[in-house]
Specification:
Layout lengths: L6 E4 L6 H13 L4 E4 L6 H18 L5 E4 L2 H6 L4 E4 L6 H7 L5 E6 L2 H9 L4 E4 L18 H8 L4 E4 L17 E4 L1 H4 L4 H13 L1
Parallel strand pairs: 1-2, 1-8, 2-3, 3-4, 4-5, 5-6, 6-7, 7-8
Helix pairs in contact: 1-2, 1-8
Bound molecules: 4-methyl-5-hydroxyethylthiazole phosphate (TZP) and magnesium ion.
Length: 207
């Protein structure tokens, strides 16, 4: 699968399940290129059912948009998602690689050059770097020191996606030839009009 990381939508648990598909669909219409299902509180059954619905929805309506599952390799496999995204405290990339088919992609969250190089060496397909800016969506984590995103992006040859507090008005601060895309939660998931929000991010990223 040829991946386009330019506008990576990460879902928000606070959007009710019955709204999730509508919001994701509108966001894709607005230019989102990749979708990650991120559930931090759901139990396995709920997470699996959401993942299955989202996978079917994308397959039927937007077959070119890959679905990535956050944290849960088992759920990613069970719903035949396109990939899985793991953090530093999750099952390591080397172990994930042993379980998933060659065709599935693995993304890893990193905060510094050491973690980035390690993840790349261990077989990550792309990296998420953040929070670039402090965000209510991940309150517990401080923003990375200024310059970290660029430094990390330069240190590896796999695609790097910026995440955390990215708003239409600050996108220019993360734009770099080394950064493959931007990942957004609240700016799109909480928008009154997710389609227009995605369009605005696209425009801001591409301008
Ligand atoms: N990882 C680093 S920051 C973040 C994640 C999942 C949340 C980003 O959310 P928002 O609402 O786009 O700032
Ligand atoms: Mg995780």
């Amino acid at each position: 699968m040829n991946m386009d990381y330019s506008l990576y939508l990460v879902t928000d648990e606070s959007v009710p399940t019955n709204q999730l598909l509508r919001v994701v669909g509108e966001a894709v219409e607005g230019g989102v290129t990749l979708v990650q299902l991120r559930e931090k509180r759901s139990e396995g059954k709920v997470f699996y059912e959401k993942a299955l619905k989202l996978k079917q929805f994308l397959k039927e309506n937007y077959a070119h948009i890959p679905l990535i599952i956050n944290d849960r390799v088992d759920i990613a496999l069970a719903v035949e998602a396109d990939g899985v995204h793991i953090g530093q405290k999750d099952i390591p990339v080397t172990a994930v690689r042993k379980i998933i088919p060659e065709s599935m992609i693995v993304g890893v969250s990193v905060s510094n050059v050491t973690e980035a190089k390690e993840a790349e060496k261990n077989g990550a397909d792309y990296l998420g770097v953040g929070p670039v800016y402090w965000t209510k969506t991940k309150k517990e984590k401080e923003a990375l020191p200024e310059g970290t995103l660029e430094e990390v992006a330069k240190s590896v040859s796999i695609p790097v996606v910026a995440i955390g507090g990215l708003k239409v008005h600050n996108i220019e601060t993360v734009r770099s030839e080394y950064v493959a895309g931007i990942a957004v939660v609240s700016g799109i998931m909480q928008a009154e009009n997710p389609r227009e929000a995605a369009e605005a991010y696209r425009k801001s990223w591409c301008d």
